[in-house]
């Protein structure tokens, strides 16, 4: 009788070698400050030390069984597909059909949100008022679920058939109270949450604590279908940290108070869309021309240039092993790089395509990006589990932190009172908390290669993960 482990079935020798390397790394980086004070999701609490002399304890669960899941293309028991920070907590959307709320100080799971019928691929935290948060989750089961974030368990509202195929992206624009969803049906839908917010704000404390009921169902106020492949990432203009008088003139003219949205698909096409609320229609303005294939993440970021002027950039992480910057202001572009070579169809929109001015070539491939307020630096979450600090002007990696043993799908800053922390999450099923001081000690960048997989095997693995 063949007793081969299930995680080893139907895998190439190179894939098994990669799995063994990941399993060894999983045990080696299981706990400790050097590896980001890991929280193993679903295992137990992992509090941060109260002093420099106190050490964190390793997880109580057998690490060998956890590392077993490293084999081949598999990840941890609780693969994090998407995440967001709110109220000292990290909310994670996981492949195990649930969402989770984890307190970053104690490492304790404050609750899980009832299981979907498929992987949870997106979530949005929606502030109502102090002490009240709404949580919306999206899944392959084509359902949107709404929860009172303080009451894990059963949702107070489920929107069935929110798409005609798998939901893969979710984004909330707080300025306009619009929830945006997209997925395999290649359609982006805009949902009006004003009635739900008014209802949630009007509930008494006792009604909220008991579990809200009779919530108004959100309505679709706009949609568009210009993508020819599944929509995998959505974002919009974030709140500006400065008054509009300090924006670049062409940015100020384009951001006239309307909802400006960017969506990306698995072929690499990115479109910029303006929502006309008065007529409830979406106007496709232009493409962001650059990535050659699947987009993992779009991240908007305000950046200063020319003394006191600011522009808005859109950073893009792609499977083509590049990280690109698209500045909205024509005056803030250092240069204009060529667009994509592969074919994605005729350009769409009323304006010429926007080209990138920065293209970072990442040998191991990136999955997430965090632009820093410091001029000219970004942190990348990479496919090999490393976190890398890159210089934008030089296009080189300056510093590396190594802890995760699978793709890093989320990066964010936790503004802890004592010291800021970088928070990362991964397909390895861990959340890691890195003190900001760890970025100040130089660490030479190692030789970054992916010799364990051939180019053909990497392409097959990428196609599988993007299905």
From TrEMBL:
WD repeat placement: 160-193
Q: Quick check: keyword Repeat in the entry?
A: yes
What Pfam families does the database record attribute to this sequence?
WD40
Q: Which SMART domains match?
A: WD40
Keywords carried by this UniProt record:
Repeat, WD repeat
Highest taxon listed in the record's lineage:
Eukaryota
Membrane-traversing stretches: none
Q: Which GO terms describe its cellular component?
A: transferase complex
Q: Does the keyword Repeat apply?
A: yes
- Signal peptide (residue range): none
Record's protein name = Uncharacterized protein
| Lineage of the organism | Eukaryota, Fungi, Dikarya, Basidiomycota, Ustilaginomycotina
């Amino acid at each position: 009788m063949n007793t081969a482990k299930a995680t080893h079935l139907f895998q190439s020798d190179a894939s098994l070698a990669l799995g063994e390397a990941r399993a060894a790394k999983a045990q080696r980086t299981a706990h400790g400050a050097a590896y980001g004070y890991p929280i193993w999701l679903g295992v137990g609490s992992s509090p941060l030390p109260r002093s420099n002399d106190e050490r964190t304890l390793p997880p109580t669960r057998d690490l060998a069984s956890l590392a077993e899941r490293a084999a081949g293309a598999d990840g941890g028991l609780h693969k994090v597909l998407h995440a967001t920070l709110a109220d000292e907590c990290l909310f994670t959307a996981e492949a195990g059909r649930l969402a989770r709320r984890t307190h970053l100080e104690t490492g304790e799971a404050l609750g899980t949100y009832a299981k979907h019928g498929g992987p949870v691929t997106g979530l949005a935290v929606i502030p109502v008022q102090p002490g009240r948060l709404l949580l919306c989750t999206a899944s392959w089961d084509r359902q949107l679920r709404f929860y009172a974030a303080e009451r894990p368990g059963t949702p107070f509202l489920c929107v069935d058939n929110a798409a005609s195929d798998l939901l893969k992206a979710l984004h909330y624009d707080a300025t306009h109270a619009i929830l945006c969803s997209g997925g395999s049906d290649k359609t982006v839908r805009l949902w009006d949450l004003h009635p739900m917010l008014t209802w949630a704000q009007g509930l008494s404390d006792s009604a909220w604590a008991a579990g809200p009921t009779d919530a108004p169902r959100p309505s679709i106020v706009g949609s568009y279908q210009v993508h020819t492949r599944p929509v995998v990432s959505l974002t919009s203009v974030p709140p500006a940290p400065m008054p509009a008088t300090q924006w670049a003139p062409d940015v100020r003219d384009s951001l006239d108070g309307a909802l400006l949205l960017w969506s990306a698909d698995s072929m690499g096409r990115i479109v910029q869309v303006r929502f006309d609320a008065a007529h409830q229609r979406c106007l496709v303005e232009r493409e962001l021309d650059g990535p050659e294939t699947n987009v993992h993440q779009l991240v908007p970021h305000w950046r200063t240039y020319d003394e006191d002027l600011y522009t808005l950039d859109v950073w893009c992480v792609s499977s083509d092993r590049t990280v690109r910057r698209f500045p909205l202001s024509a005056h803030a572009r250092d240069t204009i790089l060529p667009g994509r070579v592969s074919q994605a169809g005729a350009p769409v929109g009323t304006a010429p395509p926007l080209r990138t001015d920065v293209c970072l070539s990442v040998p191991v491939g990136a999955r997430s990006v965090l632009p820093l307020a410091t001029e000219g630096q970004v942190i990348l979450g990479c496919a090999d589990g490393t976190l890398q600090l890159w210089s934008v002007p030089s296009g080189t990696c300056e510093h590396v932190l190594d802890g995760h043993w699978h793709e890093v799908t989320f990066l964010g800053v936790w503004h802890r009172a004592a010291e800021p922390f970088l928070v990362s999450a991964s397909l390895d099923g861990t959340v890691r908390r890195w003190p900001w001081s760890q970025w100040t000690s130089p660490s030479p960048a190692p030789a970054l290669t992916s010799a364990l997989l051939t180019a053909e095997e990497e392409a097959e693995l990428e196609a599988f993960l993007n299905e």
